[in-house]
Amino acid sequence: MKKIYFTFILISLTLGVVLGQISGSNKACKNETKVYSISTNYTGLISWDVGDGNIIQESNKSTHSASGATTINVKWNNTGTQNIKATTNIDFNGEVYVFGATLSLSPSSSTISSGSSITITASVDLDAYSWSSSPSTSIACTSNSCTFNPTANIVYTLKGKIKNSVNGSEYTCLAESSATSTITVQTTPPISGNEICCDQSVCNSVAPITQKSGVTLSGGDTTNYTYQWESSTNNTNFTAISGATSASYTPTLPTVITYYRRKVTGSGGVNSISTSVSITPLPTNLNISSTTYTSSQSIRARNIVVEGTIGTATNTSVLINAVDGIEITGTSEINTDFVFQTEPCASGARIAYEDAVELESSKIASFGNFSIFPNPNSGSFTISFPDASASYEVKVSDVLGNLVFSDVATELASKEFTLPNVSNGLYIVDVKGGGTSYKQKVQVLK
Prior knowledge:
The structure is a single chain. The chain is mostly beta strands. Helix content is 3%, strand content 47%. The chain has four domains: 17-98, Immunoglobulins (Immunoglobulin-like); 105-186, Immunoglobulin-like (Sandwich), CATH 2.60.40; 196-280, Sandwich (Immunoglobulin-like), CATH 2.60.40; 285-444, Sandwich (Immunoglobulin-like), CATH 2.60.40. The strands form nine sheets. Strands 1, 2, 3, 4, 5, 6, 7, 8 and 9 form a nine-stranded mixed beta sheet that branches. The longest helix has 14 residues, at 2-15. The chain is elongated and about 130 Å long.
């Protein structure tokens, strides 16, 4: 019997199967100090290990060994589940959950104009909300979010014990936390009328971006404003443009769509940032040969060349829009769902196509505001001209190139023409003047 008894004791001590319990709170806040102890009459060496905590008795180290050290004070540094262990002739183990919420106010600082209000909100729940201010003012609000109407610069302070709740576990910190919000009240009136003009789609150069017509810049207690222009390629992240400090700004021709805005500063640091305008560079030349379109599109460039077969546009209308002009080759096949138009720019709009191409008038929206109507007609038609101050030469030929009619239009917005003694068929109307040229086929049906 004695042999069996001694064998059992030796195995138990070696494996450490006899465990003790550590007394103390199993919840704490970060940087909070808690007391932990073990119940034992053991007077020998007791070793403590608190992992990420600091033991106060050991100059804030994580381990402590001393004879009869049955009680320690631990300041917890990290959040989450922490282990604590004491070793004597047996092991004592425990776990502590450390909460890490901190109190802050949003906004932590802000500048508001005189007569405006500001709402300040706490980041966490507190057991009670104690608001104060410096200079001292009467504050009735006792919630986590309060709206104030300060008349001068002021600092608001909120104090309270943080109420923690994680995965159903709740705990209120022992110590009171505090946070502040500094509010600057700007007595200088805000700047208004900081509006700039306008969006541009550009060919060779960019027009100045200026103050919007009819809108006056005011406020800021001054008329001597300072300016800073900013640019961005995504209309989100703006960068100050070096040297761009005048009321207006003329950008260099960008290679991609670029956005510009203006920051105006008045006295006392009051400033205003305008909404942005965009500068879109147009592609110089675009060839749309052998292309199939399956959805609504708008194609825009300075010069557009159409050659070959331009597929079909399925249940849609495709707008072919050129700044300087459109050229359509003689072998092109153009679906009726394609609409062509030009808009005047650097060199003036034009349309050119070979005789083999039949371009119905229904496909033409406008060529620099040129239009011929009606088409088909009985031999009489009207031409609308883009520039009523210019002179235009009008020639009409048959499909063999024989001239059948010519006339001029001087300083007219439109003019009616009648072809003399012509038969039914197709005729080519060629208009030149005002720095532009325009050619279209008309059909005579009597």
